[in-house]
Design a protein that fits this description.
Blueprint: H1 2-11, H2 19-43, H3 47-69, H4 73-101, H5 108-121, H6 146-152, H7 158-168, H8 170-173, H9 178-184, H10 192-220, H11 230-240
Helix pairs in contact: 1-2, 2-3, 2-10, 3-6, 3-7, 3-10, 4-5, 6-7
Pfam families: DUF5677 (PF18928)
InterPro entries: DUF5677
Amino acid sequence: MTSTGDRLVLENPVSSEDRLPRFDTEVLVRGINSVKAAGLLMEQGHWEHAAGVTRQLFELLINMEYLGTLEDREAGVLLYLRFGALQFALQQQKDYLYNEATGRPIDTQRLALLEHFLDVAFDDFKGKPKHDGTVSWVPSWSKKNAKTLAELSPSKMRVSQYQYLYSTWSEQAHATPSSLIHNVFREAGDGWVDEVITSDDMKIVETSAMTLMLFLELWDALPHTPSLPRDKSLGWAEQMREVMAVPDLFE
C-alpha cells in the first residue's frame, strides 16, 4: 500500500507554485510515512506504541475532511498553513527562551523580531488573554477540537473512532497506569506466554486494519493527489473486512 503511494507521488511531481496539489501531496506523504512507522512498530509486536501513530492519522483525516466541507477550500488551506507558521514561530520562541534560561547565548535581536512578529501577524489566532494579561492562542487552525471535527465529519464512523482512539487507546498513547495494569497482575502460570502472544496478535491485526483504513480515507480526502487505484483499494478493503467495518468509499 505505501509502495503504491510512494510510486504515484514520484510519478506525479508537483511544484511549490501549485499550492493545493503541493499541500495535498505533502499531507499524503505524511500519511504514507505514518503507516510505515506504525508498520515498523507492529512488526516488532509494539502495537501499543503504534496506537499513537494511528491517532495522528485520524487527526490528519478529520482536519482534511473539515477542509473539504469549506466553501473555499483554498482559503482554508491557507489558514491551515498560517497556523502552522504560528506554531513554528512559537516553537522558535520557546527554543530561545529555553536557551536563555539555561545560560546559553542567544541572539536577543532576533528574539525581539520574532516576538514582534508574533504580536502583529496572528491576531486571528489570539484567544482570550490569560489572567496575567499575556497572550493565549486558539488550540487549532479551525478553532475546533478533535471531538467536534469528528462530529462534523461526513463519515458516520468517525465519532465511534474518536471515542475508541481517545478513550480505549488513549491509555496506550499516554502510557497511563491502566496501560500497565494487565501485565502487572497477570499470572505467570502454564501457557501464559501463548496467551500474551495471542492477545498481542489480535491487537496488532486490529491496529493494522484501523491504521490502513484511516490512511485510505485520508488519501480519498485529498482531491489534488493521484487517485486511489480502484483495483488495489478494493483488494485492500476485502482484506480489512475480515477484521472490521470498511467505509463506502471502497465500494
